[in-house]
Amino acid sequence: MVQTRQLYYDGRSKAATSGHSFQSVNPANAQPIAEVLSASASDVDAAVKSAASAFPTWSKMPAIARSRILLKAVSILRERNEELAIQETQDTGKPISETSTVDVVTGADVLEFFANLVGGGGLNGETAQLREDAWVYTKKEPLGVCAGIGAWNYPIQIALWKSAPCLAAGNTMVYKPSEFTPLHAQSLAEIYSAAGVPPGVFNVVQGAGDVGAYLTSHPTVAKVSFTGQVSTGKKVASAAAGGMKYTTMELGGKSPILIMPDADVEQAVDGAMMANFFSTGQVCTNGTRVLVPKKMKAAFEKALLAKMDFIRAGDTLDMETNFGPLVSETHYQKVLGYIRHGIEVDGARLLAGGAERPAPVKNMDGGFWVRPTVFTDCTDQMKIVQEEIFGPVMTILTYDDIDEAISRANATPLGLAAGVFTKDLNLAHKVIAEMEAGITWVNTWGESPAEMSVGGWKQSGLGVENGRKGLEAWVRNKSTLVDMSGVVPTVFSKL
């Protein structure tokens, strides 16, 4: 049965006035699962107006009161984890083994973190005694109406990463999900309302890039938080800068994994596989450039090939499945194009996978399935090494010298993530200190808990999300100097 998804503002579902809609498709079988109503400019205006009307009351509510409401939303999210995870699986194609243990769970963790943070004094300012009769105090004040633009790879998680600190700080939000994975947005809005979030505090508009562009350039919007590809992020950031809006940009990466000569080969392979094949490679922090010592290359590849059989494509609602399809037909063709380029133009050696269609998955014919692919004997100049593929495509490169490996790892305009595998923790810290990336791991890959502030360097983004630092992205500072001397200093006095 094809469901209908609507807009959400003023605390309830709203029909769109554009007269246009689009379909959400299950990537596993290419069958439509929802008809989604697309917002018109007047619909966006109405949602922004709703958020602006709600802001004075919500922002003046004591932080502990906001915290209690948001913690109720956390409870509802956890109670509905299975239902929401199934919805995410059908919308994204990611296996239920992932969506049920990562997507909703970690999103709820972030909401809980920020609710507790503001409830425990996280919005407190500072005081400084200047002299006996004068002092300075600061306040952290909310920004106003904020726009959240979601991505398709972690829909509900990203929606919570944006809305949690936004709402906890006292702001209101108009959120636009990706048109490829839109189903979560209305569900989240309904959960917030059920928890007691007042009407207008969290609102949803649906649509493609034109809707997002109109929302982010809206004069009432004080901040734009965007997650997506670099080229789109630059356009959004440019438009926001023209309106002097605050921004948070979480963009793409082409992240390196450095395997040190002393690393445990099995552990290094496990890390590389998580960094390339988890979520079918559709993760912005993927470590797709795997730099291996030349002397370890044969052992690394042997161990990797032995573990490729552990990647299990199958029914996405089967808990034993750990590898799903790509998110859409458009993205499927893009990834296949890169794989073919790696074979036919770059001339990399294909170690596993390839562009051929994998064996059909039972009851899921017609989906956007691709083989997990590994290229070896790669060079830094290859297109598959230089550009973000956003699919399950690993490239293996070799090095002779650690300093050389670090230099090559940093030779990219992107700087989202990086990691090192070694038994020598002193070496690990030295290597990580040299990496030009905002998110780094040692002897692991991919975990991003609520307590960990994350954000890209260089062209991979602006600002951070999560952690205590993440709250600062949703407030503005006000400093006040109080003089109690009874005398106003002035240079304009009689000589």
UniProtKB/TrEMBL annotation:
Lineage: Eukaryota, Fungi, Dikarya, Ascomycota, Pezizomycotina
Similarity section: Belongs to the aldehyde dehydrogenase family.
Alphabetized UniProt keyword annotations: Metal-binding, NAD, Oxidoreductase
Active site (record annotation): 250
Aldehyde dehydrogenase domain boundaries: 18-479
Gene source species: Ramalina farinacea
Reaction catalysed by this enzyme: an aldehyde + NAD(+) + H2O = a carboxylate + NADH + 2 H(+)
GO terms of molecular function: aldehyde dehydrogenase (NAD+) activity; metal ion binding
Alphabetical list of PROSITE patterns matching this protein: ALDEHYDE_DEHYDR_CYS (PS00070), ALDEHYDE_DEHYDR_GLU (PS00687)
EC number(s) from the headed UniProt entry: 1.2.1.3
Domain of life of the native organism: Eukaryota
The name this protein goes by in its record: aldehyde dehydrogenase (NAD(+))
Record bears the keyword Magnesium: no
Pfam family, one: Aldedh
